[in-house]
Design goal:
The protein is mainly alpha-helical. The protein has a domain of about 90 residues. Strands 1-2 form a two-stranded antiparallel sheet. The protein has two helices and two strands, in the order H-H-E-E.
Length: about 180
């Protein structure tokens, strides 16, 4: 036997405890119901109406903002298209062909061979004479390549006396008897 072992003592039976007595008794008569107060009902109804009104107002505000956003997006898209068209026009007007044509209109000519000035002694190398009044480059001549960015826009379509535009386009025949369909057996 070990020294650490403890001796168990038998458990003593506990005395049963008594449950507290219930104090139940039959109800003689139900309590009278209180009348609901009208003020509480009006406050509850007013609160529900206020919540509904706020929800409708917020819904209308959000809807109005979405229409305004759609309108602004449409305007932004149109402005982007206009910006792109103006950028293409500017690119065409900055082309060397247009600049040469405008220079020729102003009477500018292409000089012959270049001349150089040495600053140390002031000596001129090259021809040292001004350009002739005839240019050696013709920007609109037979060898010129057309620039698609500077072509004239197409003419507007002519308008009849009744205000409708005349078109020379071949249109398909009108469908009067419904959609055409193949005949099957």
């Amino acid at each position: 036997m070990s020294l650490n072992a403890t001796v168990r003592q038998p458990a003593q039976p506990l005395a049963p405890t008594r449950a507290p007595e219930r104090r139940l008794r039959p109800v003689a008569e139900p309590r009278p119901r209180r009348k609901p107060k009208l003020a509480y009902a009006l406050v509850a109804l007013g609160g529900a109406l206020a919540i509904g009104a706020v929800q409708i107002a917020l819904s209308l505000a959000i809807t109005q903002d979405s229409f305004a956003l759609a309108s602004l997006s449409s305007q932004q898209r149109e402005l982007n298209l206009q910006t792109h068209a103006l950028q293409e026009e500017l690119t065409g007007l900055n082309s060397p062909q247009v600049l040469a044509t405008e220079a020729a209109k102003l009477g500018m000519v292409v000089a012959g061979s270049p001349s150089y000035l040495r600053l140390s002694d002031g000596m001129v190398f090259g021809v040292g004479a001004g350009a002739d009044w005839t240019s050696t480059v013709d920007p609109n001549g037979a060898g010129a390549v057309s620039n698609s960015l500077i072509t004239a826009p197409p003419a507007e379509t002519p308008v009849n006396a009744d205000g409708t535009a005349t078109t020379t386009q071949d249109l398909p025949p009108a469908i009067t008897d419904g959609l055409p369909s193949p005949t099957t057996r």
